[in-house]
Amino acid sequence: MNMLSPLDDRTRKQINLIAAQSGGSRTSVDKAIRKLAVQDHEFLLGLVQPFLDGIVAHALSTALPQPARTAVSPSLSASALDDLVKGMRAGLERGGPAPSQGQGDSAAHANTIRALAAAQARRRKEDY
């Protein structure tokens, strides 16, 4: 059964009856449902059936040994890692982040960012 399937009719009717008899107290409904689940195994099955796949998966994950995780080797070459460390070190020595090694922002992109910042500043002035 799908984990998100609805409760069966019998279970839903029993829950609705308990809720109607409780006078709207969530605590009373909770206690009554738990008591009925212990006494009536068909009700318990109807209650957990929509969640049975998840319950079983959790039980398996805790009962069965987990496969050992293998260490992931870095995909960068030694020279690329050295360049990365040098760039980070240079940034720390200057007191800021290392400069980008990629292409710089285009002028159009920079203008767009400035326009967005200006629009946000105008909105803030209008809000206050």
Question: What is this structure, in a nutshell?
Answer:
This protein has 128 residues and is mainly α. The protein has a domain at 11-63. The protein contains six helices and no strands.
Descriptive account of the structure:
There is one protein chain. This protein has 128 residues and is mainly α. The mean pLDDT is 79.
Q: In terms of topology, how is this protein built?
A:
Layout: H1 9-22, H2 26-39, H3 41-48, H4 52-63, H5 78-94, H6 107-127
Shape: elongated
Largest sheet at a glance?
Answer: none
Computed Rg: 30 Å
Please work out how many helical segments DSSP would assign: 6
Question: What class, by secondary structure content?
Answer: mainly alpha
Beta-strand residue fraction: under 5%
Distance between the termini: 55 Å
Helix content: 55-70%
Element pattern in H and E: HHHHHH
Query: Which consecutive residue ranges, at least 5 long each, have pLDDT under 50?
Result: none
